[in-house]
């Protein structure tokens, strides 16, 4: 198996044993951990298929999608930079994916048409359920990094779940305000609001927050500034850092030292993958095999 296939040689992936029937579209895509998560799942379920990476440029996306359909693929995932291209390329888009503004999972249906869905939102909900035993709808949420793709998806899904409160903050505050304006129909009144990213504002808000989410890339480098002012986390907080390299970020370490429950971004990768698998095969995903594959992949790569 190659590290990744292209539109030109994707036919050879279909001749693998087991044959490729699932792929992740990306550019670049060589770093994607999805094969290490999905191939153990396929083996655990006795499905005669494998999952490969497919590196295509934007203009190749649609021809590659048609090629996969002709090669009898079951479905595909889509990662950067193609999540928006995918939205316009599939025959039908599920309403939740339309609201999230991106497609990351494609299903090839028996009638030859394609359906685009987004497992990032449901993956986030399942992460909070499985890791914190909490429902997003019950929580008062503070999102740091409401200007990015990951933060935006989490914000929209939190609003779709009807969370008790959603406070959006971002280095570039205007992006948080733009996002908040799109969520007013789901969270009326002041249930969705923005907050300036200052130490004083954060310290005032945090006593009334249940779940703190880091949707920024801060925490990936040891030189990054702290996300929150000192001493404002307590054992009552749930902390979800979407960063997964390093596995224990400074935010997670600080939260755990304060007695709070804190997790990194790996569970969301796992649960969005499990959701995609369940859509493709209409059966429960073997989450244990997927988690083991993902953890082994993270442990074995120096730079993910
Ligand atoms: N666990 C998962 O499944 C998963 C999935 C996707 C992404 N992620 C992680 O989530 C993080 C964000 O990814 P993304 O794709 O959303 O990236 P993105 O679209 O580039 O967004 C980056 C976000 O981080 C903020 N930011 C960047 N540098 C900052 C700084 N120095 N100070 C304050 N804020 C800063 C940006 O604020 P501005 O708007 O002001 O620029 C923006 O809100 C990454 O660490 C990524 O690895 C995890």
Task: Reconstruct the topology from this structure.
Layout: H1 10-14, E1 20-26, H2 34-44, E2 50-55, H3 61-70, E3 75-78, H4 83-89, E4 92-93, H5 95-100, E5 105-108, E6 114-117, H6 120-132, E7 140-144, H7 149-160, E8 165-169, H8 173-183, E9 192-194, H9 199-205, E10 211-214, E11 238-241, H10 250-257, E12 261-263, H11 266-281, H12 287-300
NADP nicotinamide-adenine-dinucleotide phosphate binds next to helix 7 and helix 11.
Overview of this protein structure:
39% of the residues lie in helices and 17% in strands. The protein contains 12 helices and 12 strands. 46% of the residues are buried. The two termini are 19 Å apart. By secondary structure, the chain is of the alpha/beta class. Helix 6 crosses helix 7, helix 6 crosses helix 11 (266-281) and helix 11 (266-281) packs across helix 12. A 6-stranded mixed β-sheet has the order 2-1-3-5-6-4, with helices on both faces. A 6-stranded parallel β-sheet has the order 9-8-7-10-11-12, with helices on both faces. It folds into 2 domains: 10-118 and 267-300, Rossmann fold (3-Layer(aba) Sandwich), CATH 3.40.50.10860; 121-264, 3-Layer(aba) Sandwich (Rossmann fold). A hairpin with a 5-residue loop joins strand 5 (105-108) and strand 6.
């Amino acid at each position: 198996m190659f590290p990744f296939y292209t539109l030109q040689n994707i036919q050879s992936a279909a001749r693998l044993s087991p044959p490729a029937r699932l792929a992740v579209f990306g550019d670049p895509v060589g770093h994607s951990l999805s094969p290490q998560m999905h191939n153990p799942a396929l083996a655990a379920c006795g499905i005669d298929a494998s999952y490969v990476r497919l590196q295509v440029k934007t203009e190749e996306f649609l021809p590659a999608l048609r090629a996969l359909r002709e090669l009898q693929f079951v479905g595909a995932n889509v990662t950067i930079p193609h999540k928006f291209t995918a939205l316009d390329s599939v025959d039908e888009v599920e309403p939740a994916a339309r609201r999230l503004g991106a497609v990351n999972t494609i299903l090839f249906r028996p009638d030859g048409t394609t359906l685009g869905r987004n497992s990032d939102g449901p993956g986030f909900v399942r992460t909070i359920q499985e890791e914190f035993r909490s429902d997003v709808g019950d929580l008062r949420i503070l999102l740091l990094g409401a200007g990015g793709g990951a933060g935006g998806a989490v914000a929209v899904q939190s609003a779709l779940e009807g969370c008790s409160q959603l406070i959006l903050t971002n280095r570039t505050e205007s992006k948080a305000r733009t996002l908040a304006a799109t969520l007013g129909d789901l969270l009326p009144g002041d249930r969705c609001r923005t907050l300036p990213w200052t130490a004083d504002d954060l310290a005032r808000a945090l006593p009334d927050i249940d779940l703190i989410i880091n949707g920024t890339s801060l925490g990936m480098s040891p030189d990054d500034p702290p996300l929150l002012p000192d001493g404002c986390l307590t054992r009552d907080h749930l902390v979800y850092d979407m960063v997964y390299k390093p596995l224990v970020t400074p935010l997670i370490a600080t939260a755990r030292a304060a007695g709070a429950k804190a997790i990194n971004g790996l569970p969301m990768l796992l649960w969005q993958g499990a959701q995609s698998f369940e859509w493709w095969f209409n059966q429960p995903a073997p989450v244990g095999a997927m988690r083991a594959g993902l953890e082994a992949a993270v442990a074995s790569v120096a730079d993910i």
